[in-house]
Amino acid sequence: MAKVELKKPIVEEIAANIDGAESVILVHYSGITVEADTKLRKEMREAGIIYKVYKNTMMNFAFKGTSCESLSQHLEGPNALAISKTDATAPARIIAGYAKTAPTVKMLAGVVEGNYYDEKGVAALATVPSREELLGKLLGSIQSPVSNLARVLNQIAEAKAE
């Protein structure tokens, strides 16, 4: 079997994973301990994120003709892909958390909802709360005036009862 035939399924796997993904983050992962890497992978799995190390040449072939093609310029050294099909900011948040304890782990670039972000852009995305947190804050701000009105009406009713 030729080498090309062995590599083709890997390129197809990468292409299938990035197809329709909300976010694809390219991570430089050198210098991380096995324990820290295992913990990172576990948290990624629990969040529904595909986190895998691929050869740079394989990623380069898979990125051609997709919105992730701009990531090819960063393919040097040991890199991994963090791919999320549902939450656009989850990979960046999780990796940014690990980068605090393992400074050699860093986000190089990413494609989020079809838009390319450099290292600073991806770091800014890491500060954006998840969709659930944002919805909770919205609901809290909507409920706040209603609960304040109920509290005031209750105090008026108690004052008249005395």
Provide a brief overview of the structure.
The chain has 162 residues and is α+β, with helices and mostly antiparallel strands.
Write up what this structure looks like.
The model has no long low-confidence stretch (mean pLDDT 81). A hairpin with a 2-residue loop joins strand 4 (106-112) and strand 5. Helix 1 packs across helix 3 (56-63) and helix 2 packs antiparallel against helix 4. The termini are far apart. This protein has helices at 3-18, 34-46, 56-63, 90-101, 119-125, 131-161, and strands spanning 23-28, 49-53, 79-84, 106-112, 115-117. The chain is of the alpha+beta class. 54% of the residues lie in helices and 17% in strands. The chain has a 5-stranded antiparallel beta sheet with strand order 2-3-1-4-5.
Name the poorly predicted regions: none
- Rg (C-alpha, Å): 22 Å
User: Termini separation (Å)?
Assistant: 92 Å
| Content-based structural category | alpha+beta
Query: In what range is the share of β-strand residues?
Result: 15-25%
Shape: elongated
Overall mean confidence score, pLDDT: 81
Secondary-structure element pattern, one letter each: HEHEHEHEEHH
Q: Output the strand order for the largest sheet.
A: 2-3-1-4-5
Element layout with pairings:
Elements: H1 3-18, E1 23-28, H2 34-46, E2 49-53, H3 56-63, E3 79-84, H4 90-101, E4 106-112, E5 115-117, H5 119-125, H6 131-161
Antiparallel strand pairs: 1-3, 1-4, 2-3, 4-5
Helix pairs in contact: 1-3, 2-4
